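Reopening this ticket.

The earlier resolution said the output was attached, but the attachment link was broken on my side. Pasting everything inline this time so it's all in one place.
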Amino acid sequence: MIVKAITAPFSLLAAAFGGGRGDELSTVAFPGGIAVLEGTSKAGLDKVAKALMDRPSLRLTVVSTIKLGAEAEADGYHRARFDELIRSEKRRSTVKNGGTLSAAITAIPAEYPALLKEVYKRADIAKPRSGIGQVKNLPVESMGKLLLADVKVNQDAMQAVSLQRGVAVKKYLAFKELLLNRLFLGATKSGNVSASGLKIDPAPDAKTDTPTGREMEATRRAQHRHVPALTQICQNPA
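Inline output:
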């Protein structure tokens, strides 16, 4: 899911890279329902990190909102939780059989049926039973549907995803050697949009009598004549 937050100072950063739209640098894309940064998003954040390294008077705040009830978010969340159940079962069976766990354990398609049967067997969910009370043997597809149906997608779950996205962006920028006292995490929100946006401000002690400070001051004054706030969260275009 691609989400946007338009912030005027990003037009200055875009100019530093030979043009382009400033809102493209303030756009962070995430797959629905999860908080994993992908290649395109990382490339944009790499540019933001470099621009901030070159401008020590700037600081950045990551603000995330989540659209409750969005189909793409719910579907992605269901799939992510289901895949985690499968990976957890593979970790359990690997240890049980004396194997060695890797840092990023994955299951290949051929392993799914056996792993899913074990997940279903151990799951504390309502299961179809025979007339004498025994759990019915179901096709793998049917077991998968019952497990997916048991994954709850509620407001708390979606707000947790929103928070995790903000943390993921902040941590990625911190790994680019930006000082943590220049990176901030805004409060997560729920509303009519899904967004993980970036907001840039001058540091509290930054003076306007510098090239960067003068640019920022001129931009803020222009913005105040046209918009009510520095940051505008825009509805997901998808």
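Reporter confirms the inline version is readable. The helical segments are 10-16, 22-25, 39-54, 71-96, 112-122, 140-149, 155-175, 211-226. The chain has two domains: 2-69+155-234, 75-149.
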